[in-house]
Design brief:
mainly beta, Maltoporin, Chain A, four-stranded mixed β-sheet, 6 helices, 6% helix, transport, TonB-dependent receptor
Length: 655
């Protein structure tokens, strides 16, 4: 494979040698701090001036990674992020010590329905219609409520503002991986429309393990096939009022057994109105619908039997008032009706209504100091749970190029309907048992950061400490009766859990076309014990203490008809140990301390721009052919170097 890759890369690089005199590079190389962000305060703020440290993954970053979905993107760019696997290779995210139930993922500020093993379906979060992504780490419950105790990942989609844009693209890779995409943008006058379509497919493939594994290993890695359609229509009734309607459909099929493929579907829709009441007042209202289903298709009978459905209907109001001195008052309220059908639920169906109201005041004291305070009230009908959540953040700018940010935020997470009422035979291993008496998690987050920017350079260092009381997790398995064949795995509140971490990032963009970024994350996760001080088996891998991501690329335009971008990405994760059962089907055999070694993955990419319309991409993922000795559930499921070839055509630029 390396031989073919070398030949192909040589052929692709050859045209650059015959191109004439280089043209001046017109791409801006300064650090982009004029980006407008909204997630940290729910108000539009320049990235430079936001009082809450916000990480932005720009449109250019997304294009350079050539990521298919959110999972691919995050693990390539951010340190401290690792995706591992649970039962049946369901994907689980560890984001600096926080899992999927504590990192709230939004699309244009809206929640997502459906989860598997506590995480959203990352395959439905494609990058085709994404403008940028905003990430706020640390407790954000005062603005976003439950599930935001570890932070928020907000995916901001593109606006349809151009008269006509049409892009078609395709990518091929190992294991019959195929990716096809179409993006159509039209607009005229007050109307704008954006339609995207994606088709992704990967075959199942086998992997080989070393001898004498000490816990369960994977022999087959399952691929899948997905369709994803998204439609967004905007209409400006006037210069003060804009309406946005959206709809989406997602379908995924995964074949573990030929007779009964697993199917996953999602249908989403929404309507949002943005109204500028006056020079100082803005009002936003939104309705969102999201339904995520799981089913098993029986090929013989041709019956598609649904066994899971999560339906969410939500209404949101958000009001801003700006004062003459730069202060901003924000107030909002949300209502969510949550319906869950699951054949493994006690009673099959459960419903819950939740309501919240919050207020925030952004006080610009002077040119040096800014303080933001927020308070939120949440109520959940199931169990009549309510909570008040505060947050306080400050930004200090002693000199123009330096921002120091610090703050405190309380995190809050109410137990889900699944955690309270589940009763599930987990593949014959144990019975996952809900607990209707679960208490809500409450966490305390303290953070401190410094950011310095000058000319082509940006440096950021940050630290945080999170302490969680009554963390919701699964406890130690037990036999309810001596005659039980399978043990029970109960949900419970754990006595103590904390995460201490720090990050450092350095990035630069030079006028010669060179861009570089180096980011390091330290995570010290103190795993919990139950109320009786018993160690709890962790089915998910703990956070690795040290992780590093690196990126460098060089971009140059040679004349009018040829451009080149050469990039190299790397990520390093330190080793980690995890307590796991020797045999999940017979827990009497006890546990082993499984060692997951440190590893490094690199990706080389080459993008050639041919004329104005065509881009040809070649990438070598896992450049140095890393393969785990044992494919345990929590190791990277890669079986070596992957050659990927892609083609993108902007049809509108041809004519």
């Amino acid at each position: 494979m390396k031989k073919y890759a070398f030949v192909l890369l040589s052929v692709l690089l050859f045209p650059s040698l015959s191109v004439g005199r280089e043209q001046a590079d017109t791409v801006s190389r300064s650090i982009e701090l004029e980006q407008v962000v909204i997630t940290g305060t729910r108000t539009p703020k320049l990235l430079l001036n936001t009082p809450v440290l916000t990480k932005v993954i720009t449109s250019a970053d997304i294009q350079k990674t050539d990521a298919t979905n959110l999972r691919d993107l995050l693990q390539q760019i951010l340190p401290g992020v690792e995706f591992s696997y649970a039962m049946n290779q369901q994907v689980h995210m560890n984001f600096s010590g926080f899992g999927g139930q504590s990192m709230l993922i939004l699309v244009d500020g809206e929640r997502l329905a459906g989860e598997t093993m506590d995480d959203v379906d990352f395959t439905r979060l494609g990058m085709e219609n994404v403008d940028h992504i905003e990430i706020v780490k640390g407790a954000a419950s005062a603005l976003y409520g439950s599930n935001a105790s570890g932070g928020v990942i907000n995916i901001i989609t593109k606006d349809a503002i151009r008269p006509f844009v049409l892009n078609v693209n395709a990518r091929l890779a190992r294991h019959n991986e195929q990716r096809y995409g179409l993006s159509l943008q039209t607009g005229k006058g007050k109307w704008g429309n954006l339609f995207t379509m994606n088709r992704n497919k990967t075959d199942n493939y086998s992997v080989h393990n070393g001898s004498n594994p000490v816990t369960r290993v994977i022999a087959t890695i399952y691929g899948d096939a997905t369709w994803n359609f998204k439609e967004q229509l905007t209409y400006a009734l006037s210069d003060k009022l804009k309406l946005t309607g959206r709809a989406g459909y997602f379908f995924r099929q995964l074949v573990r057994t030929v007779e009964t493929p697993e199917r996953y579907r999602d249908f989403s829709a929404g309507l949002r109105a943005q109204w500028r009441l006056s020079e100082h007042d803005n009002l936003e209202g939104a309705y969102a619908f999201d339904q995520y289903d799981k089913s098993d298709y029986q090929r013989i009978t041709r019956l598609d039997i649904r066994d899971y459905s999560n339906v969410q209907n939500s209404i949101r109001l958000l009001y801003h008032h700006s004062f003459g001195g730069g202060d901003v008052l924000t107030a909002g309220a949300d209502y969510l009706h949550d319906y869950l059908f699951n054949t493994n639920l006690d009673g099959n169906t459960r419903k819950q209504d939740s309501f919240d109201a919050f207020a925030q005041y952004d006080w610009s004291i002077d040119k040096v100091w800014e303080i933001v305070g927020a308070l939120r009230y949440d109520y959940f009908s199931n169990g009549h749970t309510s909570h008040l959540t505060p947050k306080l953040s400050a930004r200090y700018q002693p000199v123009h190029n330096l921002n120091i940010r610090f703050g405190y935020g309380m995190g809050f997470r109410a137990p889900t309907l699944k955690e309270k009422y589940y009763n599930f035979d987990m593949a014959g291993i144990w019975i996952v048992e809900g607990n209707p008496n679960l208490k809500a998690e409450v966490s305390h987050n303290f953070n401190l950061s410094a950011e310095y920017t000058k000319n082509h350079y940006n440096f950021t260092v940050s630290s945080y400490y999170n302490r969680i009381n009554n963390k919701i997790a699964t406890g130690a398995p037990y036999y309810a009766n001596p005659s039980d064949v399978m043990p029970h795995l109960p949900y419970l509140n754990l006595s103590d859990y904390s995460v201490l971490g720090a990050e450092a990032t350095a990035q630069a963009r030079w006028s010669n076309g060179l861009t570089a970024r180096l980011a390091y994350a330290f995570t010290d996760e103190h795993l919990p014990k139950d109320k009786n001080d018993r160690s709890v088996n962790n089915q998910y891998i703990p956070a690795r203490k040290h992780s590093l991501t690196a990126h460098i690329d060089w971009d140059r335009q040679f004349g009018k008809y040829y451009g080149l971008n050469v990039g190299l990405d790397g990520r390093y994760l330190s080793d980690v140990n995890n307590i796991e059962y020797v045999d999940y089907y017979d827990i009497s055999k006890g546990v082993n301390n499984i060692h997951y070694p440190a590893y490094t993955l690199w990706k080389f990419s080459l993008v050639q721009r041919l004329g104005k319309a065509v881009k040809l991409t070649v990438a070598l993922d896992n450049l140095f052919n890393y393969k785990p000795e044992y494919y345990y559930l929590n190791c990277p499921l890669t079986d070596g170097t992957n050659l990927m070839v892609g083609l993108s055509v902007d049809v509108d630029k041809i004519f």
